[in-house]
Amino acid sequence: MDELKISILGTGDMGGAIATAIGRRTRHALKVRGAQPGSASALKLMDELGVMEASKQDFLASDIVFVVVPAAAIERAAPTLSGYQGIVVAVSVSDSVGRDGLPSSAERIATALPEASVVSAFTSIWSNVIREPGKSGKTSVFVSSDDDKAKEVVSRLATELGFEPVNGGPLSTALYAEVMGMFAVRLATDSGYGRTISFHAFNAG
Ligand SMILES: NC(=O)c1ccc[n+]([C@@H]2O[C@H](COP(=O)([O-])OP(=O)(O)OC[C@H]3O[C@@H](n4cnc5c(N)ncnc54)[C@H](OP(=O)(O)O)[C@@H]3O)[C@@H](O)[C@H]2O)c1
């Protein structure tokens, strides 16, 4: 895969896992940023991975920007990317997705960033599995977007990271993959399967 410029907005548990996976398992050029410039979570990652903080210009020049902020912070975070015309990977999942009457986080990001090509992906995978995909089979990454070219780029990146991309259809279906993310949380915590419980889609026919 050609070298891409990838930036991560949101450097907590999941943003840190994605940055670590990309920084350690690919040769793409990576930059990161937390809620504010110089945020402690971003500085820690920059130190661990030897990468720089993303400026507004870096975001605008990125091929892919991962948005990995709490769902409640999407509209607050979006102005950092205003005018961006590249690929946004929407990873955020609302705690009450499917029950809150809101559109998916991916669709909210698409509304906030109308010039970007928004792709929903990685919403149903635990950060632990992003860091260490494991050896029990490939975890599926459900990839939804209205932009087929952007979907293909993100699917190739998912493959490069050790996952199996599954065509999740248009962005309007992102909600269902986000619900699977919250189901993974419930399975891990309430049902006791732990933070490596994963989904693998296969054709039983
Ligand atoms: N954790 C998982 O395994 C997992 C899996 C799938 C999906 N997700 C989704 O990924 C999202 C992040 O989850 P998380 O577990 O990583 O949460 P987290 O550990 O609380 O991290 C949230 C990050 O978002 C940043 N942030 C908050 N407001 C921001 C803003 N206005 N602009 C830019 N950055 C902002 C925070 O920055 P500071 O550090 O500077 O405060 C922090 O780095 C959530 O929507 C979650 O549902 C998580």
TrEMBL record:
<dbReference type="GO" id="GO:0016491">
    <property type="term" value="F:oxidoreductase activity"/>
</dbReference>
<dbReference type="InterPro" id="IPR028939">
    <property type="entry name" value="P5C_Rdtase_cat_N"/>
</dbReference>
<dbReference type="InterPro" id="IPR036291">
    <property type="entry name" value="NAD(P)-bd_dom_sf"/>
</dbReference>
<dbReference type="InterPro" id="IPR051267">
    <property type="entry name" value="STEAP_metalloreductase"/>
</dbReference>
<feature type="domain" description="Pyrroline-5-carboxylate reductase catalytic N-terminal">
    <location>
        <begin position="5"/>
        <end position="88"/>
    </location>
</feature>
<keyword id="KW-0560">Oxidoreductase</keyword>
<protein>
    <recommendedName>
        <fullName>Pyrroline-5-carboxylate reductase catalytic N-terminal domain-containing protein</fullName>
    </recommendedName>
</protein>
<dbReference type="Pfam" id="PF03807">
    <property type="entry name" value="F420_oxidored"/>
</dbReference>
